């Protein structure tokens, strides 16, 4: 059982491995964190963690998986009052706009 105060620290583990270039490990920890945030129904961290997962899939070349994650975030953002959702959507599109393969999946 994880205390609610420790949730932010858990959220960062996937991002840290992503930054280090350890994509599979980052994906694993992000997916584990997502399960915990869903248990607590913590929408802010769910959204943020989904963003990390989507970007990791993108970096791994799994563009379809990445696109599906961000479709989920976009759908959720249309019914949410969380401003963080739109921030993450913008962050995602900024991130992929820097990639040459963008045109091949749209």
3D architecture notes:
By secondary structure, this protein is mostly helical. 77% of the residues lie in helices and 0% in strands. Helix 2 packs antiparallel against helix 3, helix 3 packs parallel to helix 5 and helix 4 packs antiparallel against helix 5.
Q: What is the number of helices?
A: 6
Instruction: Tell me the Rg in angstroms.
Output: 13 Å
What percent strand? under 5%
Mean pLDDT: 76
Q: How many angstroms does the end-to-end distance come to?
A: 41 Å
* Series of H and E elements: HHHHHH
Q: In terms of structural class, how would the helical and strand content be classed?
A: mainly alpha
Biggest sheet: strands, sense, closure? none
């Amino acid at each position: 059982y994880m205390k609610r105060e420790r949730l932010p620290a858990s959220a960062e583990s996937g991002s840290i491995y992503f930054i280090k270039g350890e994509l599979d490990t980052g994906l694993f920890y992000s997916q584990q964190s997502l399960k915990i945030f869903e248990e607590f129904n913590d929408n802010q961290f769910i959204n943020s963690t989904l963003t990390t997962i989507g970007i990791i899939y993108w970096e791994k070349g799994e563009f379809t998986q990445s696109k599906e994650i961000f479709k989920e975030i976009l759908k959720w953002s249309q019914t949410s009052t969380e401003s963080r959702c739109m921030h993450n959507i913008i962050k995602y599109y900024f991130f992929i706009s820097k990639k040459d393969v963008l045109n091949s999946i749209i």
